[in-house]
Amino acid sequence: MARINAAPTPEKFAETWTRAYAATVRGASTDGERITRSQGERLIGGTGIQSLFADNVVGYLDSVDQNSVAIDKLVAAGYSHALEAGKAAAGPNNVLSIREAQSLPTNLRDDFLALRGQPVPRGAEKLAARLEQIASGLMYSSESDYPYTKFSTRFPKGEEINATTFRKALDIPENVEVRVRSAASFFSEHKDPEQVGDNDAMAYAALEKAMKATMTSLKFVMVGGEDQVEGQVYVVGRTQSGDLAGLSSTRIWT
After folding, report:
1. 47 closest CA partner among 123, 156, 111
2. Short-list 197, 221, 219, 223, CA closest to 208
3. Phi-psi region of 48 (alpha: psi -120 to 50; beta: other; left: phi over 0)
4. H-type helices in the chain, by residue range?
5. Are 35 and 74 in contact (CB under 8 A)?
6. Cβ atoms within 10 A of the Cβ of 165, count?
7. What residues does each domain of the chain span?
8. Of 137, 147, 157, 203, most Cβ neighbours within 10 A?
9. pLDDT at position 74, please?
10. What residue ranges of the chain have pLDDT lower than 70?
11. How far does CA 1 lie from the centroid of its chain?
12. Please, which residues have CB within 8 angstroms of residue 215's CB and are 6 or more apart in sequence?
């Protein structure tokens, strides 16, 4: 259901956005008083409009070079940001239509559409896209090199990520081998400068940090046995909503 009318004033937009923002960050906080960077980052894997507020929390913490902030202070800064941005984007009649809202900063644009009642992209999809950006330039090496691409899928909340559940989630045939292990060994291998070089080692370390900050139960999955020349590999984790997000690539064995 829409929370604002078709063309709100900047003040109405800022007030409505701030109410939703405040409720979300207080819910993500342990004590309702302060929110940490990791708590803010985990919002991206959530559901509904809540997933859109991760960039607002993290962006503010980046701007003040802190890893936590009092929620009252964060919310006040958010209101000021939304109000100023709304006034800058509003047309001559001092309202925000969908067309005018396209001029809002990227950390408010989707929020506006969500408050208008439009569908919100799944948090897992947004997180996967973010991870793909972090992994840009990295290649999964086997007997050939392939880039990493974004991956997300719905996954039953509360179920363990194992070969059986992963197979079911992706509808993988029973005759195709699926192997699942902790992602720790994958990252350990790929953070070794002697194996991948200094630049890639740092990039893999940044990728691991981002995945640990936003997800739980990180896994490395190989689909396809040694009898298959080409197979898929996945580095995934469970988002706040329970869905899976991460990256996929291709491996070649001959």
Report:
1. 123
2. 219
3. left
4. 10-28, 37-42, 54-64, 71-89, 98-101, 106-115, 123-134, 163-170, 183-190, 193-196, 198-214
5. yes
6. 16
7. 10-121, 124-252
8. 203
9. 98
10. 1-2, 121
11. 24
12. 42, 45, 127, 237, 238, 239, 245, 246
User: What is the assigned CATH class of domain 124-252?
Assistant: alpha beta
Angle at 180 between CA 177 and CA 184, to 5 degrees: 150
CB atoms within 10 A of CB 133: 9
The 10s digit of each residue's pLDDT in 210-221 is 999 889 999 999
Q: What was the pLDDT predicted at 234?
A: 97
14 within 8 A of 27, measured Cβ to Cβ? no
DSSP 90-146: --TTS---HHHHTTS-HHHHHHHHHHTTPPPPPHHHHHHHHHHHHTTT-EEESSSEE
Contact yes or no for 149/245 (Cβ under 8 A): no
The pTM of the full predicted model, rounded to 2 decimals, is 0.68
Q: How far apart are CA 134 and CA 112, in angstroms?
A: 26
| CA–CA dist 33, 26 (Å, integer) | 7
